[in-house]
């Protein structure tokens, strides 16, 4: 982290943080628009994709934390996914109070379709960008994430 006497770094305009936020919102909106015909809302597809990333059997508490949302908000979305027969809750093997999430067979099928749609959007959004540029951007973002977590005294999220 920069010392107290160091000058603030000059970043390109528009401000980098603003641009990161805008790209994030546009990226998510593009995915949401793509999967809308599947009956997927942003909340639903976000939960399904993060559950895939974290792995089945993850607790609702861990999933909420990784998504950066409150447990009651996650519960509403999980209730919808349960009603749609896409996920199911199971008791944790050693803590009966804790509920863990698993995909149903229909959920696994929906997840495959969802991943296809998301992959298509990713491809469209990264047109004209080389693999090396994407790798470099990823590495820079991971460093910014790490610095932000250190500044806020938080563990890094999302693995890697």
Automatic annotation (TrEMBL):
Keywords from the named record: DNA-binding, Transcription, Transcription regulation
GO molecular function: DNA binding; DNA-binding transcription factor activity
Alphabetical list of Gene3D superfamilies matching this protein: Winged helix-like DNA-binding domain superfamily/Winged helix DNA-binding domain (1.10.10.10)
SMART domains: HTH_MARR (SM00347)
Top-level lineage group: Bacteria
InterPro entries: HTH_MarR-typ, MarR/SlyA-like, WH-like_DNA-bd_sf, WH_DNA-bd_sf
Keyword Transcription on entry: yes
Designated name of the protein: Transcriptional regulator
Organism: Paraglaciecola chathamensis
């Amino acid at each position: 982290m920069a010392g107290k006497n160091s000058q603030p770094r000059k970043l390109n305009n528009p401000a980098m943080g603003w641009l990161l936020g805008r790209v994030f919102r546009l990226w998510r909106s593009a995915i949401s628009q793509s999967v809308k015909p599947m009956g997927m809302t942003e909340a639903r597809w976000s939960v399904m994709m993060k559950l895939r990333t974290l792995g089945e059997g993850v607790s609702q508490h861990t999933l909420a934390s990784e998504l950066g949302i409150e447990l009651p908000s996650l519960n509403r979305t999980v209730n919808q996914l349960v009603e749609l027969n896409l996920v199911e809750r199971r008791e944790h093997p050693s803590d009966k109070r804790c509920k863990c999430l698993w995909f149903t067979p229909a959920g696994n099928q929906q997840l495959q379709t969802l991943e296809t749609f998301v992959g298509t959007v990713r491809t469209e959004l990264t047109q004209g960008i080389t693999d090396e540029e994407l790798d470099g951007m990823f590495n820079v973002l991971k460093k910014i994430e790490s610095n932000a977590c250190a500044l806020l005294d938080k563990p890094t999220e999302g693995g890697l």
